Amino acid sequence: MLKNTYNYVIGRYTKFLSLSFSKKFLITYFLCIIGYLSITLLSISINSLYSLKHADFIATKKFEIVSSAVVSQTGSEVSYLSLALTYIVNNFLACFTISSAIVAVALLYKHDLKKENEVVISYINVLFIFYLITILNPFTGLSGAKLRYLDLLAVIPHGIFEFAAVALSICLGIHYALKILPVSITLNLDSNSDSDSNSEKNIIDYNTVKSIPKLKLRDYLNYLGLLILILLLVSIAGILEPIDWALRNYSIANNLNMVDLFIESYKNIIYYIIPNILNDLLSKF
Predict the structure, then answer these.
(1) How confident is the model at residue 225 (pLDDT cuts 50, 70, 90)?
(2) How many whole angstroms separate alpha carbon 180 and alpha carbon 215?
(3) Do the Cβ atoms of 123 and 87 come closer than 8 Å?
(4) Contact assessment for residue 69 and residue 243, using Cβ atoms and an 8 Å cutoff
(5) CB 180 within 8 Å of CB 103
(6) H-helix segments, 74-182
(7) Is the pLDDT higher at 278 or at 177?
(8) Who is most buried in 16, 17, 79, 129, counting CB within 10 A?
(9) Is residue 174 part of a domain?
């Protein structure tokens, strides 16, 4: 039963890999949001019934540090800029690690296949496991154990850009992993080994692996361009995240309606603050 279900899921995932980059991105974007909300809501529900002491100690530090720093410290020790830059650096490194890890899987498998070493775990299975872990994002979800359900509103503004960056980094890694080692080749190897066919077919497939064209300069430039886009998305999220948690804490401290506060604050940011900043920048040129 479980094996049939898993095989069905892997089959759907294989079809997903054949989609265009934009379609993979959109699907992954929504799955990242669903994964985060699922784990977060589950952790909030469990925490209300049973204290997640160890997970809470590790995972909630991000929210505790940001909340206390923004509200209680306004001096030079912890500035808004330092908080924003910390988010930007940490989140960009996380996104870069995600894309690099997926690409590394393809490089390692291709290296083993070139050497005609036996590959124990299927390439498609490893790609799927990486994909599942990254879209579920369990550690970030567990960090919401001390949040209230309404506090998830504070995730929306910066989360729009942060989840886009994560989804883009996942799809970037998958896209270049498939360029380095297409799944179709490893599926042929798996089917050949399962059917106990003669070794000539496997030799042809191994030669096919060796003949896969190397990445061109254009591929590296495209990769760099998408990394810059990820950095841009992460930067926007990093700029907004301290503001979001400051608004959340301000609403709690002053017993204000959080929804109204967020709407009014972002209306002011969009209609007044951003235009004034742009006008000041343009006036210098």
Answers:
(1) very high
(2) 7
(3) no
(4) no
(5) yes
(6) 80-114, 123-136, 138-142, 156-180
(7) 177
(8) 17
(9) yes
More confident residue, 60 or 21: 21
* 117 lies in some domain: yes
**Which token pair is 116?**
């005609």
Q: Please give the single-letter amino acid code of residue 22.
A: S
Is residue 281 one of the residues assigned to a domain?
Answer: no
Kindly report the pTM of this predicted structure.
0.81
Q: What would the two tokens of residue 230 be?
A: 């990820």
Domain of 194 in residue numbering reads as 78-240
Residue 148, CA distances (Å) to 257, 261, 264 in order: 14, 17, 21
Residues ≥6 apart with Cβ < 8 Å to 16: 24, 27
Q: What's residue 179's pLDDT?
A: 92
Q: Enumerate residues 6+ apart whose C-beta is below 8 A from 284.
A: none
| Domain-embedded: residue 32 | no
Which residue in 8, 14, 6, 4 sits closest to 186, CA to CA? 14
Number of domains in the chain: 1
Length of the chain: 285
Give 139's Cβ-side CA count (13 Å radius): 8
Q: State residue 257 phi and psi, 5-degree precision.
A: -70, 115
SS3 198: coil
Separation of CA 194 from chain center: 35
Quick: pLDDT tens for 175-184.
Answer: 999 999 888 7
CA-CA distance, 167 to 29, in Å (whole number)? 5
Residues 6+ apart with CB under 8 A from 31: 135, 167
